[in-house]
Amino acid sequence: MRLARGPGIGRLLEASGWLTLAVLIVGCAPESGPTGAPVPTPTVYTSAVNFADLPGWQGDNQAEALAALTKSCSKLASMPPETDLGGLAGPARHMQQICSALQGTSITSAREGRAFFERWFAPVSLPADPEAEALFTGYFEPEVAGRRTPAPGAEPLYARPPEMVEVDLGEFRPSLRGTRLAGHVENGQLVPMPDRASIQDGALAGRNLELVWILDPVEAFFLHIQGSGRVRLADGSVMHVGYAGSNGHPYYAIGRTLLRRGAIAASEMSLQSIAAWLREHPGEMRSLMAENASYVFFETRSPSGPIGSAGVPLTPRRSIAVDPFHVPLHLPVWVETRVPVSGGGDAVFAQLMLAQDTGAAIRGRQRGDLFFGHGSQAREQAGRMRASGRIWALAPRSHIDASREPR
Known about the structure:
Layout: H1 21-26, E1 47-48, H2 66-76, H3 92-103, H4 110-120, E2 121-125, E3 135-141, E4 143-147, E5 155-158, E6 164-168, E7 180-186, E8 189-191, H5 196-200, E9 210-214, H6 217-226, E10 228-232, E11 238-246, H7 254-261, H8 271-280, H9 282-290, E12 296-301, E13 319-321, E14 332-340, E15 346-357, E16 367-374, H10 376-384, E17 386-387, E18 390-396, H11 397-404
Parallel strand pairs: 3-16, 4-10, 13-15
Antiparallel strand pairs: 1-2, 2-18, 3-17, 4-9, 5-9, 6-7, 7-8, 10-11, 11-12, 13-16, 14-15, 14-18
């Protein structure tokens, strides 16, 4: 995205952008972030609960989540202690204290992992959001075939144009926090960047902005939605590319058009069904893609894996994109939902995850986008992932205790 993801995965997310079914169907966007939408009130506190109240808490191997927490700790270590992580996390010093404690431990078992999180964190129940659906989707890191030079029918991935600027309106007015604009300056005024249709028609061609050419234009389109991925080149080497910004135009979910036309039934809507339709209708493919005016720019990345909005590499099935207005980045969360399984159907998913990404499609207290990783199984699960569920935040105990002290 998945969307308000800055440099990160994109998911249909701002950085994070990656393909989520919600984005394809509902039309929320990952790449560019909200543009003028009302800013919700951040969640500060809700009701504390016990770990015994978390469904499936005893059945997870919490030690596996420590790898994701360690990645967040590496980012948190560079922050001034009083950096405000937001609401339930408080100043960075609370998480830094936990990270220091983690460094001095050797945890290998599920029991030890549970004990660590129970010692340092307190679970908090987030209230239902009357204006946002409790919905869980998924995203993944795609791998596509590409070339370093143009090829017939291939689609280029463009680097970010040097003239493009992004503006966070929250820096000018607090009431506009979370609202971002992108464009370029002409005659002293900020004007829009070219939209997808213009770029498809060559608006950026001939400027040496092409990073790589993707052989399948359908895969290139979905790579834009995911916002990050791997490009396998002719010599067998792999180029890692990630989100470098978007053109600032609003995201439109092409799945809406296909639903309206009756081309795909709602019950059959998925990444796979949309890709199949595009390939079966090559004459309409580019015009349908152009209905989504949003366009992602890329940069090459190190092979450490996709980077989320929190600025750390994502961990499959342990990293999740959240709404940072309600769940601060780097915070552990307990997630209960259902995930697709191989061969069809789904299964209960109750696991400890780290809030390490965001997305413009991810809005609300009970909204999450699960990172499934890389490969065909991850693609299959992410493409089919759409379920109700619930999130509990794990807040640092020291922050909870400090907030209860009389002032």
